Amino acid sequence: MKALVLCGGVPQIALIKELKSRGITTLLADMNENVPARQYADEFYKVSVLDVDAIRELAIDQKVDFLITVCADQVLQVVAQVSEELGLPCYLDFATAENVSKKSYMKKIFWENHIPTSQYVIMDTLDTEKIKHLEYPLIVKPVDAYSSRGVCKINNPSELPRAFENAKNISRTKTAIVEEFVQGDEISVDVYVEDGKAHILCLTNLYKIGEDGKFVINRSRIPADVSEKITSQIAQTAQKIADAFGLKNTPMLIQLISTGEKISVIEFCARTGGGIKFLMIKKNSGFDVVKAVVDLTLGEKPHIEKIDAPNKFTINEFVYCNKGTLSHLEGFDELLREGIISDYKQFKFSGTEFDKINGSGDRVAYFSIEDDTFDDVSKKHAIANSRIRAVSENGEDLIRHDLIEKFHNQ
């Protein structure tokens, strides 16, 4: 068999390894020739994964048996569309893949099905009359972007025009959502839906940089610090979402805010969380979501017996840089050997230029720390921050250590 994998990030490395373990030839498509998954694939094609016509042509030309991706929201639409057009297998039909990626449709279904979410207005042209009933602060975001691109918190009307235009320009459909801001803790909920039943795999606290009104994740904590009351609300809401969108067998990611008393859903998608989330899910539930996606695509049905969560604390730190050009990383391998960190991944390599932090795609690396107590995790975290470096071509350390230090104040 022959598979066409779209996107060449870290999650796709695991996907390619899973495919090859089954004797499946892997073709990788990505516009970036330096993606980390390239070295694991049998063949590489420099093609935009969002160019439906180009992906369709490649799939036909190479006579692939199926297209596949993991942890990539907009790309899943392309996989579903091309698969449907060519009569190839996919675990989601195109209509569903498109609907669960449209924030406009999503919010509408939330309200119709009494799924808790904030009040909102969708516009392609700024009209302050349409949002006069909304209370500041507000969140402005594109209807169809990802990785927190274009998401901005504004505190007063004077900030609205600039934020709206930025979000609209990032949107592929030139449309933005303006919604009320809900104060609270952000929680990421990873779910697997089996025969329509939503199983919670992992609850994660998310911490964000919050500079310039942006919402870029720089840290996560597992297990999430949530009460039984909120956990129950999350489980009920996950099932409501699966029912409302007709999801039967699929991974699902929900992002929501907890006030401590109630929750408000920000958005969701029919995929696993990006970055290294697939690793965290497997480690914290025993369920392999990458394997599950391959199984689903090949007509098999994964089954969840039980969720096995280890009695450990985990902090995942996403590392960002100041302005400069990267030469190499230092300290990570030594910390791994010494057991200070339990894992790390490098996302950017020599020659990468850093400037402002605009989204999660600007991470240079991540490291993970695990231990039996939160105090021990905290001590290891401080040691790691003192020793890691992202060395520039000029020999300077580019890492934003100030962002990492904020962990000890949270």
Descriptors:
410 residues, Dna Ligase, domain 1, D-amino Acid Aminotransferase, Chain A, domain 1, 4 domains, 12 helices, alpha+beta, globular, 4-stranded parallel beta sheet, 19 strands, 8-stranded antiparallel beta sheet, Rossmann fold
Overall description:
With 410 residues, this protein is of the alpha+beta class. It folds into 4 domains: 2-90, 3-Layer(aba) Sandwich (Rossmann fold); 119-180, 2-Layer Sandwich (Dna Ligase, domain 1), CATH 3.30.1490.20; 185-297, D-amino Acid Aminotransferase, Chain A, domain 1 (2-Layer Sandwich); 313-409, 2-Layer Sandwich (D-amino Acid Aminotransferase, Chain A, domain 1). The protein is 30% helix and 27% strand. It contains 12 helices and 19 strands. The chain has helices spanning 10-21, 52-61, 73-86, 94-99, 103-112, 160-170, 228-244, 277-285, 289-297, 332-338, 374-387, 401-405; strands spanning 2-6, 25-30, 43-46, 66-68, 120-123, 138-142, 152-154, 176-180, 185-194, 197-208, 217-222, 250-258, 263-269, 313-319, 324-330, 343-346, 353-354, 365-371, 389-392. The strands form 4 sheets. An 8-stranded antiparallel beta sheet has the order 13-12-9-10-11-14-18-16. Strands 3-2-1-4 form a 4-stranded parallel beta sheet. It is globular and about 55 Å long.
